[in-house]
Design goal:
alpha+beta; 9 strands
Length: 194
């Protein structure tokens, strides 16, 4: 288990069961990339779901059902909009291409979290975060789990997403998608703090 995944395992309270089994060989073939080890560890421990009903983490799948959330590239129609290629640091637009983004998360404020899949070493991929409130992409040179750990500990100089509700939480919670569905089917609000 990677260091930041271990830190998240200690700080994130898992509500119900967690973790997903993914056929990593099959998804590598489907996506044409190898996934970062910290992300693989995160999915094994937590899986697909959300942190505080605010930030959603997706899993890769060979299922192309458009109604199912999954790790994915930006849609073609988004790539056609010049506004989609706005970067907080203008030099990033010269270094990175939107076609190389692989989305692994989103927020309830419509922010997008992605790897920039440049190079063959996924552990070195930078992250791109589209802040809906700023309408720009920012680049973060850290792993997915480091990003989440730093976000939850409020370690960024400026919050990289549109909401600050996750920054500095003492006891953040993670709820797996299947547990959320199970509870909702029982008429239980999984996010209530009884």
């Amino acid at each position: 288990m990677t260091d930041y995944t271990a830190q998240l395992s200690e700080s994130l309270t898992l509500l119900g069961g967690g973790g997903d089994e993914v056929d990593w060989k099959a998804v590598e073939i489907e996506y044409g990339v190898r996934f970062p080890q910290d992300y693989i560890d995160f999915i094994a421990n937590f899986g697909e779901g959300s942190i505080e009903e605010t930030l959603w983490v997706s899993i890769p799948t060979v299922n192309t059902d458009p109604m199912k959330r999954r790790v994915d590239r930006l849609p073609e129609e988004v790539l056609e909009f010049p506004e989609a290629n706005e970067w907080a640091d203008p030099s990033a637009a010269e270094k990175y291409r939107l076609e190389d983004l692989l989305i692994w998360g989103e927020t309830n404020e419509a922010d997008v979290l992605a790897w920039i899949t440049c190079g063959s070493a996924p552990e070195k991929w930078p992250l791109a975060v589209f802040s809906r409130s700023e309408s720009t992409w920012s680049v973060h040179h850290c792993s997915m789990t480091e990003f989440l750990a730093r976000l939850l500990r409020a370690e960024f100089d400026r919050c990289p997403i549109s909401t600050k509700t996750l920054s500095g939480l003492t006891h953040p919670r993670f709820l797996h998608a299947r547990e959320e569905t199970r509870l909702k089917d029982l008429g239980i609000n999984p996010w209530s703090r009884d």
